[in-house]
Amino acid sequence: MKRLAPRSDDRCFIRRLAIVAIALAFCLFVYRIGDIVLLAFGASLVAILLATVADWLAARSKMPRALALAIASLLMLAIFGLMGWLFGAETGAQATQLWQTLPNDWEKLRQAMESNPIGRLFADSFRQGSQGSRFAHLLLSAGWSSVEVAANFLIIVIGGIFFAAQPDIYRRGILHLTPHGYRAVAADAMDDLVEALRLWLLTQLVSMTMMGVMIGLGLWWSGVQAPAALGLLGGLSEFTPYVGPTLAMLPAIIMALVGKGSIWGVVGTYVIVRIVQVHFITPLISQRLVSVPAGLYLFLILAMGVAFGGFGIFFAGALSVAAYTLTIRLYVRETIGDDVALPDDE
């Protein structure tokens, strides 16, 4: 009796098992090289931004796209250089001052809180939460050396220029890896993804600029030390919605609580800035933006931070938009069949 002899349906089972094993191995590989994947994703964001500017220049001036891309790349580098030249010395000095004084200010605030029972309760809760929460520990310990930040930035910019110079090569490469029957769906998904990220990038750049200027002016009026550095921090923090702006408020609040500025002015600055953002800036610039639900957005950002560290937190906003867009296109629309609008449908 051959009860253990191979059956005809074993081949199908083994094939499915092999597919699952390969998929799991690929996911593990991507996780292990997460920093490289995030660098490539950052380069893709730069490529989308450069391509947007280059296509606009080529359409308006009728110049070749290669020349328009070169101008866009030089323009981007010139803007970064101008910002460094105009604000580097002053903001850098203020940032150094902020970095040196903030630990002492926090220690003074902690000692003041422990001088009364209610404040001691909050201090103990914060200490226990920081020790017990992996994400809180990540935020408190995250930080890159200036050399590492500069190297990553250089890699992202160079990679972005390469991607923007020949986008069709990479698009065709992805399609070649897709089975013939699904290539049309994959092409539509890539178009949706690029459009969603393009709109997200443009709105974030506008929001970052306006928020940074308003926060810096408000903190300067409140008498807080290093207003330019804190304004720059507030503007850059908008790249990671919800989590970034919340963390960016803490240095100014801590400094104001130990007497280095008006606490009411600081609180009023952030309240007024958020009101202006919610009621004026966001509705004006986000009319066609992919609308990720706030709760989902927040926990996607936290998940990216836990999975990939500080690097993941920085790109968590864009990654959340990308994941949400692909889910809507590939699963909700193409698999289930529900009609959900995406930015390029308008």
UniProtKB/TrEMBL annotation:
A Pfam family hit: AI-2E_transport
Chief localisation class: membrane
Keywords, in A-Z order: Membrane, Transmembrane, Transmembrane helix
Any idea what this protein is called?
AI-2E family transporter
Membrane topology term reads: Multi-pass membrane protein
Q: Which organism is it from?
A: Sphingomonas chungangi
Q: Which GO terms describe its cellular component?
A: membrane
Question: Which family is it part of?
Answer: Belongs to the autoinducer-2 exporter (AI-2E) (TC 2.A.86) family.
- Transmembrane segments annotated in the record for this chain: 12-31, 37-59, 66-87, 142-165, 199-222, 242-259, 271-290, 296-324
Keyword Plastid, does the record have it? no
